[in-house]
Amino acid sequence: MALPITAAGFSWTHTDRDQPAVGPLDLQIAAGEKVLLLGASGAGKSTLLHAVAGVLPEESGEATGELLLGGEKPDPRRGSTGLVLQDPDSQVIFSRVGDDVAFGMENLGLPAETIEAQVPRSLRALGLDLPPEHPSAALSGGQKQRLALAGIHAMTPEVIVLDEPTANIDPASATEVRDAVLTVQAETQATMLVVEHRVELWIDHVDRVIVLGREGIAAQGPPPQIFSDPDLNDTLVDCGIWMPQHSPTPRRGGTAGIDRSSGRLGEVLLRTDRLSVARPRMATPAATDLDLSLRAGQALGIVGANGAGKSTTALTLAGLLPEFSGQVLAEAALREGAKRTRPFAWPSKQLAARIGMVFQEPAHQFLTSSVATELELGPRLAGWSAAESQARMDELLEVLGLTGLAQAHPQSLSGGEKRRLSVAAMLAPRPRVLIVDEPTFGQDALTWAGLVEMFLDALEHGSAVIAVSHDQAFLEAIGADLLELGDRSSAEHAGTSGSDSHVRAGDRGE
Amino acid sequence: MSERVIAVSESLDMHSRPSPEVAVEDPGQLIPVVRSTSLARCNPLTKIAVAFVLMVGALLSIDLVSAGVVLLAAVLALPATGLDLVAAAKRLWFLPAGALLAAWGTALLAEKTGDVVVDFGPILFTTGSLTAAAAIFVRALALAIPLIVLVSTIDPRDLADALIQHLRLPEVVVVSVLAASRLLGLLVSEWQVLAMARRARGVAGGSLLRRTGSLISGAFVLLVVSIRRATTLAMAMEGRAFGRPSRTWRRRSSFAVRDVVAVLLSLAVCAVAIGAAHMLGVWNPIIG
Known about the structure:
Chain A is α/β, with parallel strands linked by helices and 510 residues long. Chain A is built from 16 helices and 18 strands. Chain B is built from ten helices and two strands. At the A-B interface, strand 5, helix 2, helix 3, helix 4 and helix 8 of A face helix 1, helix 8 and helix 9 of B.
């Protein structure tokens, strides 16, 4: 059933670029082989996957050489290739899960009875025991990815192509998605090609690792050989690959889990009083009875399952959503001239100078047309002098490694660069409190370390950091106390145990 | 098994988290359908026809009787639509309010015939103008209710099936529009996030000029994000063999006896409405 993939001198060049996005490349992947594709960002991994899936728009670039699937040019209309992309939201096609799974089979022209019988089978195979009428909008990110896989499973593909399928979802769901991929592969015996930075997720489940360099294939071989070869180590690290067994350490700030003895902590900045939070127009709160206080220099990690109200809590603490009940209170050290005590009551300008909020999707936060002005905006609004803002901007560009891109448009940056820029733009006016939502989603090992460094720097300067994150390693690296939001009852528990004006971290997960 | 249940209950991500006792609800729906009735199961084309016939009955003449008959029939039929009427009342309270406003305007501006009822400075209501106002009020509601039922009970997917299978509209276009319409829903929540993000960056509020500027930059970001989404969606659809000839349909869009009954009933209501207006001599056609 499976098809081999062969490339001979294959390359693809975007119409507006001189350098090819991928290749020239020679490649031999046997039918039914499972391959993990690695490479630095910009090495053309996604372009290669899209070429294999046959979805590269013909008018947007030029191909040279040859890329064949079982001896034929890739054509998605044959239905032999299943493609899963990174962003869960953009892959849902219909509003009911049954229709979504059926989409590919309908396109293939299968009879209605066959489709009707296959839909529940594919849903079950991917661990989605949902009625076909279930609205797809009510699925979590991980479930949406498994829905996309169910649609592919139903088409019984001969090649499965996966473009960072777990990059935008939390680690627990990532494992489920990985297992779902393996289920589809095992049932169809299809050739599998996956791009992913999180190597440890796949290393025990693939036959071969291919490392893509700027000029073709840099290395390839079975996983144990690739990851034990000392000569390859530097190449892999430079690619930003998460090496199995050891997580990257930030260059500055020394070891993970820096000393956070009470001496380092300053005055209380932000406090909550029996706080319950909810999205606008919701009748029931997402999390209830939070009593916490945040000190200067303190890092607080908000953790918990999907839907436990973590993001809502972060937005409420950031003064962007009104409290459902109870209050968020800014202490004198944070107020500094603001009249009101509730951040939600502050005008936008006062808020931005005091509490920075970094959203999950960095593209949402960019307001200007260049990286430099983006970094300058915050300090300027906060009333810094031109010289001060300029100095701060230069400093941040340096830390970000974006000096060469100072005039580039923020929306044109790569995912990792955007993420770092959005954090830096919030940090620029040195707000006393910085709140971030999943800052490390989709980061490769290099940008991850860069982010950790920026947070450690902010903490050293006496800012407090609240991070919503599933990333244990990140929370440990910034030395965060943990606030676990669970179902309603455990949130209450966290609230009462933290009533002595400091959040009891519970277990640090060590 | 229990793991599955947990997975489902925690699936409601950060965008919406309805209270646990409510069954999973499609956030895109105007008013949730809580019961499956024969009317709700009718073909979308039937529903459109019924709404159209009823609206013609209410629209042809400006009088209390014809619109009143249609409104009465529509209200009596509401339980048969399977809609959550409490939610409807909560979300659509402004409809009667709007109709009342239109009626107030009519009462002020319509020809002042008949006896004077209210004479208070600039406000002069006569029996004639009040009758016209009542007709406008009833008419507005008689037009609105079928439309709302239409929008709330039609599943876009069913409509697409019907349009392609019965009206022979081109399938690539209909399916693409259907898929894109789902992204429109995302746009709303996206805009809410953008508004918060602008406030967090310190550029919300301020002078009108500043607000306009930040609105424009926000719209640009929204455009960038949507184009990226749409491109990905197109790629995902293409990747699943969309565009290949001889597509089949999982569901046959069909008509049943209930469809005929629904159309006949609506025609009857329309005939009664027009007939009653003629018989009572209040027929006041909008044309001619």
